[in-house]
Specification:
It comes from Salinicola endophyticus. The chain has 253 residues and is an alpha/beta fold. Helix content is 27%, strand content 25%.
Length: 253
């Protein structure tokens, strides 16, 4: 039986997943959350996109870690993320139209990277951006080695004293609690959130939506009633249907 999903190496960057054949294929770079690059969730999301005709690249940006430890999100170079996006756009089986999709800290990553590229006029900005369970502000660093469950002594979602992100050699202007200025982006934007999210409050996406609308933007926004940070089966099926439709409309045309 021939493979319906094929792994290919994006030279110097890592593995991609896509349909068989020579393409070109609409392309999506996937950004993982605090679970880290080793957990496999971003690869699972990449395979789902590949099964529906996309070339998908799970970009591992967390630092250190292994199959037992998530590693850290600390002083992560967003310049490197922009370079990965450009390398993916130039991959010989890519159509040249590239989207970004992130969940949780990956959603923060996607929105922040896009807003900075838009602000500074950096070429190669994503053609469409999707963010599930995003924060509306920059968050602090995260280290999987010190993570504790909610309620345990010392629990914190992130370390506000440490910087998570770095842009053009500096993290001093990317301070925790600073709003992410995604309203600078004029391209297609997909936001989604569970209304019972116990990690990032749904109020964050509601604030993003209100701010975008106040700036004349028209994001596509979906709220999943009663769903937590990661939707359950029925809601996740709905989410993936909407996500695939969004990328199909804006990347595959």
């Amino acid at each position: 039986m021939p493979l319906k999903i094929v792994r290919r190496l994006l030279p110097e960057w890592g593995t991609t997943y896509g349909p068989p054949g020579d393409g070109p294929f609409p392309t999506v770079m996937i950004l993982h959350g605090s679970e880290g690059a080793w957990s496999g969730w971003s690869h699972r999301n990449a395979v789902l996109l590949a099964a529906h005709g996309f070339l998908a690249f799970p970009f591992g940006y967390s630092q250190g870690g292994n199959v037992w430890n998530a590693g850290s999100i600390h002083e992560v170079s967003l310049d490197r993320s922009a370079a990965a996006l450009e390398a993916l756009r130039g991959f010989d089986i890519s159509s040249g139209r590239v989207g970004l999709y992130g969940v949780s800290r990956g959603a923060e990553h996607a929105l922040l990277l896009t807003s900075l590229m838009a602000r500074d006029g950096v070429p190669g900005i994503a053609d469409a951006v999707a963010a599930h369970s995003p924060p509306d502000c920059i968050c602090g660093a995260f280290d999987g080695r010190t993570f504790r469950d909610v309620g345990d002594p010392g629990w914190q979602a992130w370390d506000g004293a440490q910087r998570a992100w770095n842009w053009r050699g500096s993290s001093e202007v990317l301070l925790p609690t600073q709003p992410i200025e995604i309203e600078r982006y004029t391209g297609p934007l997909f936001l989604s959130h569970g209304t019972a999210d116990s990690v990032w409050s749904v109020a964050m996406t509601r604030r993003l939506e209100a701010r975008l609308q106040a700036h004349g933007r028209s994001p596509e926004v979906h709220y999943y009633e009663g769903e937590d940070h990661i939707p359950r089966s029925e809601a996740e099926n709905t989410h993936h249907t909407r996500l695939l439709d969004f990328f199909d409309r804006h990347l595959a045309g």
